[in-house]
Amino acid sequence: MKILVLNSGSSSQKSALFELEGASGAEPCLPAWEGKIDWRGSSASLEVRSAGGGKISEAVEEEDRERATERMLATLWSGKTRVLTDPSEIDAAGHRIVHGGALLQAPTRITAQVKSAIASVAQFAPLHNRAELAGIELLERLLGGVPQIAVFDTAFHRTLPGAASYYPGPYEWYGQGIRRYGFHGINHEYCAQRAAAMLGAELSRKLVTCHLGNGCSLAAIQDGKSVDTTMGFTPIEGLMMGTRSGSVDPGILTYLLREKKATGKELDDLLNTKSGLLGISGISGDMRQIAGAVASGNARAKLAFDMFVHRLRAGISAMAASLGGIDALVFTAGIGENSPQVRATTCSGLGFLGMKLEEKKNANPAGDCEISASESRVRVLVIRAQEDWAIAQSCWRVMRGA
After folding, report:
1. Judging by beta carbons within 10 Å of its beta carbon (0-12, 13-18, 19+), is residue 313 exposed, middle or buried?
2. Model confidence at 42: pLDDT above 70
3. Catalytic residue among 91, 153, 268, 388
4. What is the distance between the alpha carbons of residues 158 and 352, in angstroms, rounded to a whole number?
């Protein structure tokens, strides 16, 4: 079964084609083709590669996201990265949908009603759901009647207990849909399965997963189920992120509304695109550039790095408290996988949990691997994010009626 995955992020558009004969658990397989567009301000870059060795690496001139995505997808069936003779060979298409709201809690075949439900909660994840709906409509145009399946980032967190999912406002909020939903669930769930495969079920019963990318969140996972998480009603809550603020005192927002006459749109833009690492450093929301500026002695970059780690340590400690202890800690996604400095600085302040890294392993982790020292009471892993693979598996199960 040939399954195309479209993964629309806030600052990227990823896609991959998998050929699955069965859903094979937590062990990922390589895609036959994969492409990615990264937007950085007014510029963008396109990277495509196929299993046969074809590669494309070039700047993207199209500022329009839909046109750029269409250009990327065309390399599936034309040019040097071609792996299909015609789009009709695709059996199904899967989409990562960030917010499923209260009703959409499992991988679902996309219908007009499902699209309407996704649109109804788009205001809670404006950087994501609207881009994902555009991706669905683009594939409707390019692929015709090929079945499309929505896989929701919020679904994994449906098991949150009331103490973690209710907000301490009026009780009626929950009935109005104002509750903690949690996000990055596709990758948190995959990492829990992968950690269990690497360590064994007993050594990963109490797990904290750190999804650290442009967006960042933690999950406390007990026996494979989410019991606490840092993101909430929207993907703004929780940790400091690339351009998102994470949690701030709500009184700041009422102050800005009352005294500075800020509008809701201005606050939304401020919290989503002008805060976090970018807002504090004044340089970038990219941790690689922050680390480079720190090495050059930039004081604001150092402050941004220190704030990021401070909030990350506090969040990990809170997740461990929700679990009543911690067996293993997982670092995943762009920063989690690629920043030894973030991992080392974070774990150096968590020695009270019995956590200690092996310096050489942390400096050069090889694929999915353990980086904790032999004497560490908490196992520390680096696991590559495999959202596209997890989405493809979910699509396979939906198509097979599982």
Report:
1. middle
2. no
3. 153
4. 31
Cβ–Cβ < 8 Å for 217, 183: yes
**Known catalytic membership, residue 91:** no
What residue type is assigned to position 85 of the chain? T
CA torsion through residues 38, 124, 334, 291, sign: positive
Of the candidates 187, 222, 190, 188, the one whose C-alpha atom is nearest the C-alpha of residue 206 is: 222
Question: Over the chain, what is the mean pLDDT?
Answer: 91
- What does DSSP say about strands 379-382 and 369-370: parallel, antiparallel, or unpaired? antiparallel
Average pLDDT over residues 361-389: 94
Contact between 338 and 291 (Cβ < 8 Å): no
- 196: tokens are 């269990």
Query: Would the CA dihedral through 156, 158, 162, 164 be positive or negative?
Result: positive
Are the CB atoms for 5 and 18 separated by under 8 Å? yes
Nearest to 60 by CA among 50, 72, 75, 77: 72
Decide: pTM greater than 0.85.
yes
Determine phi and psi for 143, rounding to 5 degrees: -110, 0
Cβ–Cβ < 8 Å for 60, 40? no
Return d(Cα 241, Cα 16) in angstroms, integer: 26
> Residue 191 belongs to what H/E stretch?
helix 185-199
Closest C-alpha to 382, from 398, 366, 394:
366
Q: Is residue 230 within 8 Å of 217, Cβ to Cβ?
A: yes
User: What is the Cα–Cα distance from 274 to 279, expressed in whole angstroms?
Assistant: 5
- Could you tell me which of 194, 215, 234 has the C-alpha nearest to residue 328? 194
Structure tokens of 219? Answer: 């999950």
Per residue in 112-133, pLDDT tens?
A: 999 888 888 777 776 677 778 8
| Domains in the chain: ranges and CATH | 2-152 (3.30.420.40), 198-382 (3.30.420.40)
Percent of the chain with pLDDT over 90: 70
